[in-house]
Specification:
The structure is a homodimer of 131-residue chains. Chain A has 131 residues and is mainly alpha-helical. The first copy, chain A, has a single domain (11-114), classed as Winged helix-like DNA-binding domain superfamily/Winged helix DNA-binding domain (Arc Repressor Mutant, subunit A), CATH 1.10.10. Helix content of chain A is 50%, strand content 11%. The first copy, chain A, is built from 6 helices and 3 strands; from the N terminus they run αααβααββα. A 3-stranded antiparallel beta sheet of chain A has the order 1-3-2. In chain A, a hairpin with a 2-residue loop joins β2 and β3 (92-97). In chain A, α4 (57-64) packs across α5 (68-80). The radius of gyration of chain A is 20 Å and the shape is elongated. Chains A and B meet through α2, α3, β1, α4 and α6 of A and α2, α3, β1, α4 and α6 of B. The structure holds a DNA duplex (30 and 30 nucleotides).
DNA sequence: GGAACACTTGAGCAACTGTTCAAGTGTTAT
DNA sequence: ATAACACTTGAACAGTTGCTCAAGTGTTCC
């Protein structure tokens, strides 16, 4: 009965190989929500843009070639998941990445997806410059 | 005109604060695809389960209290994004996390979402035991 | 060979998501 | 106070996604 070498899986094995609930259910739902918000091309593009520093909505909109409303809606989704920061500066509202953790998630996924072919040296170095 | 201290954002500023395309467009789409696959509670649960070691579909189904077809469909989505490994063992097919990178992504998100209240010591230590 | 087991797959339908449009809020300039 | 600017928001519609069911594939056992 070489269970460790051969992880076979008869019904009686299932009973012995009990799995543990590693995290509280709420944590999984929150994490899924974060991934869901990031799991959209245009929204992830936005995050990579903000990874290079703060920007106001108009600036983002012109950079992406989209209208204000669309960008604002995308930012709302990201904001609902706590992924971006937001502060007013006169007439403008500046958005940025919420914290280093978000920067890391985006950075890691991009590094993985581009398999080392990207130059990410400019990315997320401004996140801590919140002052 | 204190631009560095005050990142204001008049139209003429937008032109000077040019952003760079850090990654090729394809990489962003691939990364978004990965996040999209992870951005579903039940599917993320599956990944955390596989983070504790390989399991066959039947075992997963009984553990989650769902039917085979539903689990198989979820695994298909994860497989299409290259997040899980798959190998046959007799009648059974064993699934696991594809690589350490996937384990890291899930681990980081859970750690973030549970704010240090989870015991993740059992997680993903088996990923490299592919032999 | 045939039967049983362990999945996989395509189709169908309900539920969700993203974009656009039109109307609204808050701030600055006059 | 009025106008202009910089967004935000709710509703509506199209496109996408996830689950269930029924039929299919591949493997083992007899």
């Amino acid at each position: 009965m070489p269970k460790l070498i051969d992880p076979a899986c008869a019904p009686q094995d299932h009973l012995t190989r009990q799995r543990v609930a590693l995290v509280q259910p709420g944590a999984i739902e929150r994490a899924a929500g974060i991934f869901r918000a990031m799991g959209d091309g245009p929204r992830l593009r936005l995050l990579t843009l903000l990874g290079q520093g703060e920007a106001c909505v108009t600036e983002i909109a012109t950079a992406e070639g989209e209208d204000l409303s669309t960008i604002s809606q995308r930012l709302r989704v990201l904001r609902n998941e706590g992924l971006v920061s937001r502060r007013r500066n006169g007439k403008h509202i500046l958005y940025g990445l919420a914290d280093q953790h978000v920067a890391d998630l985006v950075f890691n996924a991009l590094a993985h997806a581009s398999e080392g072919r990207a130059d990410l040296s400019r990315f997320s170095s401004l996140v801590t410059h919140k002052e």
